[in-house]
């Protein structure tokens, strides 16, 4: 397969465009998806300005290519967006809904967690709800407390939902295509600080399976488990430690749900020491989920206490000075690795 | 009222089945054998049937916690419904859903819904599917007067207008949300006018009168099917039982309920509106009899049926995981 | 203090009534709170029928005592209810909002988690938001998938929220009075299967502090941590095991957030064996949070792997046959205890 | 327009300060020194000021992501605002909130809000406090045209009607929600009429005309204060800058913006409507000069101010924990 350097943003757009071209039942639903074209500005109509692709810029070009019936621009009404996507998924479409910031799940969560996620079970297996909810997660851009959260822990707690959080452009494309083709509702979390990061990405469509962790680097001494933007920080710490001869294995689960339990446990079994890095929450987060998994199922192979590196139990602060301290840093990961080795 | 004899009989049968189903459930519930909560539809039969008689099996409806009537009107199997309500494996949802989650996509029933105001946004999704796939399909959602105050309902209305979706929003105004009066909870002078202000045609009809509902729904469904966008129908009809089985109904007197049953019986009103030369009273009586027998049989089967096997606990969460 | 046998329901009602009498800024907000009195039924107006106190029956009598201005009956619009409560709390009231079923948080979560919980931090400490959101949690009554959940794990993940889940009438009254007097937003989770359970409860007002676990029974061999309705099941298992000479300590954290970390760790230190019983979730639940706490902070004292007893990763099924299998049972707790002892 | 000289000068000063603040932020943002996103209010000054001039410091407002104008109109300290926007410890929220979360309860400002449609339900809470405490207070909420489609906004309107709360819902219709036109996203023919259908008085006013807004708001606030319940005011005025700083504004031409600035300048319109014998042009000019100087000083202070110390990360989460 031919590949090229693509940003995480481009990789996502690629996935959307290729799946829309392949399957006429795939539609995009979201706010401002044809921004610049909506409304009835007479001075613009003739100009054929390309829609800017939503505030994320991710869908740029899709409206021009597929038109208003498949790139569906909506009012600012997330509850109707997600509910409509769920209803459409039940009845023959494969909608991809853009939630912009995942933080907005608070205004539309019922449609996702009580409806879409539960249809199949409540209806005794007689429904499928193939939909994707895409949106940004993550701190780092001074977007403040209501635009910087990473609630994938909340989504992963919901039986019926699948939850994906790619850490690089290659994974993003393959996992998003999988998400669109998947017959279950998928929450696809895009970290806002990764959009401009590039990787070598195949030009053609490909899928990556859910529930398969990626060992972004292999190592013998300590397992560091990290997701999404935290993977870079983990690798940064690992680089630093490698210079001192400390060999760190970095495991990126890629999908929070399903979780590659085996992949995680295997690495833990081989190193016996674990650092979990997680941006979601200081309480009841994905990090705690991993710690529970390991402490219940790999207790025997642990040679040191698990180290959990999360943000503090505070909202995300606005000021960059505080926000940088809020985020798990490479330095904190490094310190945690050393701590597990000191036991 | 240009329905032919066959259509009249079919509509009456649906209403009669709903009545028999709900009246019987009222009794069954008293035995303590029905798990959870049930909300009965008696008194509102003309609304579900008046709307659904305008829909094809390939059209979709979204429903409420008070969903039995909608299910029957849309063609759900009565045995399957009854078994579901009893929590049995033979139920339409294999006992996993219960009264508030009965669904059957094969007849276009997107599910009862235990979240008040849940249906409209799902139903506009079905309407979007129809529009996108260009199959001429239509969707309808049911919401109560209480539920009509939920924000998501208004969002769905606006979305439907903006996208010109083929949908009919049915608001069933039965005078109460639980024990709270519509006159208290709806600040607007008029539920239909409120919907109209979102930019769509909206009408108020007597929900005890099948023909009034049917006419309004026919017009609305036609509009939707021909690309004319959404409509709201507010249909007014009181429920005869409590909010749920067990409700002491402090908010109204037994006399008021008796009066209701005497004067606002959708089945009796239906009969009175049909020319006795077209359909004889005995024919209606026979249908009622058949409905009760149908429900009898359903109860017997449901009671005899097995609970789901324990291993079913873990199935049907995902298509694949 | 004089005490009397009271149900969990009566204890809660007691707390509400006494706090309303004490403090004129305490108001109740919820659907159907004066049900039976609302509307304009002329036949009823003269009858002065007592409001039935909402579907939970918990607030029965309050409307008669305090009137419509303090027992505020609302339309079915949870997002406006919680938002209004948050705004009122910021500006001088101490609202208690009844959400009926906590499962409904999906239609109003923004007001709780993005607004109320974050005001104080976002506003640099210049706000207080003394509000309580009360509602039912829990499976066991065949209320099915959308009326049986226990999302306290989701709430506990939110910095700024406090989360309480009493397991008995005594705790319920004391913790609810504390919640009302507390200056932070509190989510108060009432397990629907506990409403009719009785305990000896003081007649007067009293508070129980947040963040203090209750050792419902002391023991030497194994620590069982359980919350809300699970406490009874844990004690049931403990009774059974006691007959065989196995001594189980049952720790009820009572508040999920703040969590009595010390209280939990102390017990674990003394027994070295832990069973965690949790109804919230099979993934990213409160149980995982506890397991993470213990495995990171008490690793050294653990003599066996932690046992985690949760429901499966499925929605709550309707049919009693399945629902009973879904709920963690005394038998499963017992088995887990034996398993930790077998190591 | 029965305002005395002092009131006129005060109102103009507020509008002038908002203009100076926003125009300056536009420049400051280009330096890259402002963290996060900012949404500027230039062009809409008459709305915030027209409303807030009718409110006492003890009255409350809830605001939006485009909140600087509301903050200044309600009396937030300009130095504190600027420092907050720069993320400094001297900010009104000690750098923890930023542009989208500026709040100052001591002057009745319940916070800008990064959740579109967030303000109305919070503001009815403030109105409930006023009603319950019987202190004669009033609340106002600001929401954009885009936000006016959010379900929670309609819920708040219905609640306010039902409980007869002392509140004014201000809908600022500036023609766009981000890059999407109001004519697309609002399916209703008329935002004010849609609000009126909920059972309250609702008017549409020219949001570039301080006096039109002020008159409508005075009436609404009076109604609220005297127990007459809620009112909605739709005020129409375009913003001059992009949705946020960085928006390429593909949806309108530079010529359209220039035309806007030339013909729909709320400050110029204000001046033109005031009798030159009552206030001289030079006086207005002097106020503009002072506003710019005020903002100059605020920027200088904000730039010189310290970032919050690291230990502040952990404070102010709870009152006690
Ligand atoms: C979001 C949500 N809020 C509250 C409830 C509890 N509840 C169930 S039915 C009901 C009353 C609904 O009234 P209405 O919409 O008029 O329907 P009706 O029962 O009269 O058919 C309420 C409040 C719920 N199930 N979901
Ligand atoms: C719930 C929610 N949805 C979407 C957004 C993203 N967003 C921020 S501002 C905005 C446009 C708002 O338009 P409008 O209400 O008209 O206000 P304006 O920007 O024109 O002042 C959007 C969609 C958000 N912050 N919150
Ligand atoms: Mg009703
Ligand atoms: Mg706007």
From TrEMBL, chains A, C:
Coiled coil: which residue ranges? none
Residue ranges annotated for the Transketolase-like pyrimidine-binding domain, each copy included? 6-197
The protein's UniProt keywords, in alphabetical order, are: Oxidoreductase
InterPro entries associated with the record? THDP-binding (IPR029061), Transketo_C/PFOR_II (IPR009014), Transketolase-like_Pyr-bd (IPR005475), Transketolase_C (IPR033248)
Q: Which SUPFAM superfamilies match?
A: Thiamin diphosphate-binding fold (THDP-binding), TK C-terminal domain-like
Any Pfam family the entry gives: Transketolase_C
Q: Which residues cross the membrane?
A: none
Q: What is this protein called?
A: Alpha-ketoacid dehydrogenase subunit beta
Q: Which organism is it from?
A: Amycolatopsis tucumanensis
UniProtKB/TrEMBL annotation, chains B, D:
Superkingdom of origin: Bacteria
**Cofactor(s) required, per the database record:** thiamine diphosphate
Pinpoint the Dehydrogenase E1 component domain residues. 13-310
Q: Where is the signal peptide?
A: none
From the UniProt record, list the coiled-coil ranges: none
Q: Which keywords accompany this UniProt record?
A: Oxidoreductase, Thiamine pyrophosphate
Q: Which PANTHER family match?
A: PYRUVATE DEHYDROGENASE E1 COMPONENT SUBUNIT ALPHA, PYRUVATE DEHYDROGENASE E1 COMPONENT, ALPHA SUBUNIT BACTERIAL AND ORGANELLAR
**Protein's name in the database:** Thiamine pyrophosphate-dependent dehydrogenase E1 component subunit alpha
Can you name the source organism?
Amycolatopsis tucumanensis
What broad taxonomic lineage does this protein's source fall under? Bacteria, Bacillati, Actinomycetota, Actinomycetes, Pseudonocardiales
